[in-house]
Specification:
The complex is a heterodimer of chains A (263) and B (148). Chain A has 263 residues and is mostly helical. Chain A has helices at 4-20, 36-46, 57-82, 86-90, 94-98, 103-116, 122-127, 133-143, 148-178, 183-190, 195-208, 213-255; strands at 23-27, 30-34. In chain A, strands 1-2 form a two-stranded antiparallel sheet. In chain A, helix 1 crosses helix 2, helix 9 runs antiparallel to helix 10 (183-190) and helix 10 (183-190) packs antiparallel against helix 11. The longest helix of chain A is centred in the C-terminal third of the chain and has 43 residues, at 213-255. Chain B has a domain at 3-88. The chains are: A mainly alpha (263), B mainly alpha (148). Chains A and B meet through helix 1, helix 2, helix 3, helix 5 and helix 6 of A and helix 1, helix 2, helix 3, helix 4 and helix 5 of B.
């Protein structure tokens, strides 16, 4: 807790990372974004015993035990981002609200694939949701960040942060061109709970259907706000319990025995 | 973690985030302090609620809810609170979090290195799963309600 060495190292990491600043590269219909948080993560890893040997086992353990609390502050800010747009969210139509259950599709596809890839309890963290900030905070609160579930959710979070906008930009174009969806449905689907991913998805659609631009943007933004609001609760009460069950089932199918009981 | 320790860690993270907010987003530290104090109070209230209320709901769920409520436009101090917390850039809070995460990952770097490519590969399918299933539901509802 009062491990000052860890706090000082973290402070140095923050200063260095912020000095490097944000880098953005245009790439297809989206942007590859490198944020200071990514540098802080990588340099942080390098302080470990495998590389620079600045921190020892105890320091690493102490740092891990703090992550859950650090995420609380982010979630307080997150709540205050959503509050002002609540009236607009409440007035959203039934299609917008029901498509939020699309999250369950993430689990149904993600968990079996994760187990197939040989991931163990990382699967729960990685595949229970699209892993934006509220999901990371939730996993951290429920399982702790220093376990396999934490690594899973963090891995998908980082992937999404780095190449999520490019991915959603391409995905939206592809679906609009080759799959029988109406652009409105795709615009709603673009609101996954990340403003930049939504913008990339809606951006691709707007280029293809310029006369629908305004409606597409409105649907995308409303759906995104909604995902921001319910994402956490949807994960907590729906996606996580389903993930746990599906994981046990897939584990049994693949390895022929029951999982070790979760704590 | 007890209440006193939680407060201590929150203060440390606040300080790191203020530094981050200053260097990365050029907002003066003094100007951002009131907003940061509000965020810390929201966190403490959420942690307290999760301890007092005998339901198995994690404190993050309360914290997001309180954050929403105090900035909900019909709440009397909403605009004052919004103006104050807006000084604290959302992304500036993430840098400190990932710094601690990075330090702690060294512990199981081998496991992390082994699973990371799998997780990156998996990420793509998770994005596709979310997108397509939301699109299918939207398509059906929009059809049923004659909007398309």
């Amino acid at each position: 807790m009062k491990n000052w060495k860890v706090h000082i190292i973290a402070l140095v990491l923050v200063v260095v990372s912020e000095m490097i600043g944000i880098f953005k590269f245009s790439f297809g219909p989206g942007t590859i974004v490198l944020l200071p948080m990514l540098y802080a993560l990588i340099i942080g890893i390098f302080t470990g015993p495998k590389f620079l040997k600045i921190v020892n086992e105890k320091d690493m353990k102490d740092a891990g035990s703090l992550i859950t609390v650090t995420l609380l502050l982010l979630m307080a800010r997150y709540g205050t981002l959503i509050g002002p747009s609540l009236p607009k969210i409440i007035s959203a139509g039934p299609a917008l609200i029901l498509q939020e259950f699309g999250n369950v599709g993430t689990v149904l596809l993600g968990i079996p694939l994760a187990v197939l890839l040989g991931l163990k309890r990382e699967s729960i963290g990685a595949a229970h949701s699209i892993a934006r900030e509220p999901n990371v905070a939730l996993i951290s609160d429920v399982y702790g960040m220093d376990g396999p579930e934490g690594q899973g959710v963090m891995g998908v979070y980082i992937s999404g942060t780095v190449f999520g906008t490019v991915f959603f930009g391409v995905l939206a174009s592809f679906c609009a061109a080759y799959l029988p969806f109406h652009p409105y449905a795709l615009a709603m689907a673009s609101g996954v709970g990340s403003a930049s991913m939504m913008t990339a998805g809606v951006g691709s659609l707007s280029t293809m259907y310029p006369d629908m631009q305004e409606t597409l943007a409105a649907f995308g933004a409303a759906s995104n706000m909604l995902s921001g609001l319910d994402g956490l609760y949807m994960s907590l009460w729906l996606a996580l319990p389903i993930s746990e069950r599906l994981y046990s089932l897939c584990y049994k199918l693949k390895y022929g025995k029951n999982t070790e009981e979760a704590k | 973690m007890n209440f006193k320790n939680t407060l201590f860690v929150l203060i440390i993270i606040s300080i790191l985030s203020l530094v981050s907010n200053f260097i990365g987003y050029h907002t003066s530290i003094i100007e951002s302090i009131p907003g940061m104090i509000i965020l810390v109070i929201i966190c403490l209230a959420g942690v307290a609620l999760s301890k007092i209320i005998p339901l198995k709901i994690p404190s993050v769920a309360y914290i997001v809810l309180i954050g929403c409520m105090v900035t909900f436009p019909y709440f009397s101090f909403a605009s004052t609170i919004s103006t104050m917390v807006e000084k604290v850039n959302f992304l500036s809070l993430t840098t400190a979090i990932l710094a601690y995460t990075g330090i702690s990952i060294g512990k199981d770097l081998d496991a992390f290195a082994k699973s990371s490519w799998k997780i990156i590969f998996l990420s793509c399918f998770i994005f596709i799963g979310t997108y397509i299933s939301s699109a299918i539901i939207s398509q059906i509802i929009l059809k049923l309600t004659n909007q398309i």
